[in-house]
Amino acid sequence: MLTRIAPSILSADFARLADAIAQVESVADLLHLDVMDGQFVPNITIGPFIVEAVRKVTTLPLDVHMMIVEPDRYLSDFRRAGADMMSVHVEACPHLERTIDQIHQLGALAGVAINPATPVEVLTDIIGEVDYVLVMSVNPGFGGQAFWPRAIDKIGRVKTLRGAKDRPLIEVDGGINQQTGAQVRAAGADILVAGSFVFGSEDPTARIKILRGNEEP
């Protein structure tokens, strides 16, 4: 399966967001949008209005990563704004199965994100219900952090947990660049989220190709 690349707009120039998206649209597979509330993580970022604005300028699927408490309250808002995929943190959802079911009822793909300190085994009873697992390779809340090497092991443990199936997909987010991207691809990641490595470059298209392993820098 071809590795999918999801540029994270958190690292894009928000003053020229439409232009930044246009730069990657022809080569990216989806766009990653980080939603932070200043409570679950120590930062505040985008809400449904930004998702709606992004939806108007791209046909790419929108992968909304909800780093917020009580995500159930906002799922409908983000779905109406244009989210195609929504991931919630297992650490923020006391009734995770109900949250996943709500995302599916809204017609979106449902993902579960796990922080670096959260063991993969918490997914045992939900793994068959989700469309993708988002393995955080940094502590969530800020872009530009260094990759957490133990995420490689966690990718393998998610693969073991899902068994012979090719679902849920495995997404990795945090510190992804040419070197770490190659490592997580080799470990079995299906989706690579990259922010500063892509949007911090003068040639984001080339960087996406590098992450796929198609091209040298």
Can you tag this structure with a few keywords?
single chain, carbohydrate metabolism, TIM Barrel, alpha/beta, metal ion binding, 217 residues, cobalt, Ribulose-phosphate 3-epimerase
Describe the structure.
Belongs to the ribulose-phosphate 3-epimerase family. Helices cover 32% and strands 19% of the residues. By secondary structure, it is an alpha/beta fold. It has an eight-stranded parallel beta sheet. Strand 2, helix 2 and strand 3 form a beta-alpha-beta unit. The protein starts with a strand and ends in a 5-residue tail after the last helix. 43% of the residues are buried. The mean pLDDT is 93.
Helices and strands in order, then pairings?
Elements: E1 4-7, H1 17-24, E2 31-36, H2 48-57, E3 62-67, H3 75-81, E4 85-89, H4 96-105, E5 109-114, E6 132-136, H5 151-162, E7 169-173, H6 178-187, E8 191-194, H7 196-199, H8 204-212
Number of domains: 1
Low-confidence stretches: none
Give the integer mean of the pLDDT values: 93
CATH topology, anyone? TIM Barrel
Quickly name the level 1 CATH class: Alpha Beta
Strand order of the largest sheet: 1-8-7-6-5-4-3-2
CATH superfamily: Aldolase class I
Helical content class:
25-40%
Query: Which structural class do the helices and strands define?
Result: alpha/beta
The secondary-structure element order is EHEHEHEHEEHEHEHH
For the terminal residues, how far apart are their CA atoms?
23 Å
> How would you sum up the major sheet?
8 strands, parallel
Radius of gyration: 16 Å
The proportion of strand residues reads 15-25%
Binding site for a divalent metal cation: 32, 34, 65, 173
Binding site for substrate: 8, 65, 141-144, 173-175, 195-196
Active site: 34 (proton acceptor), 173 (proton donor)
Pathway: Carbohydrate degradation
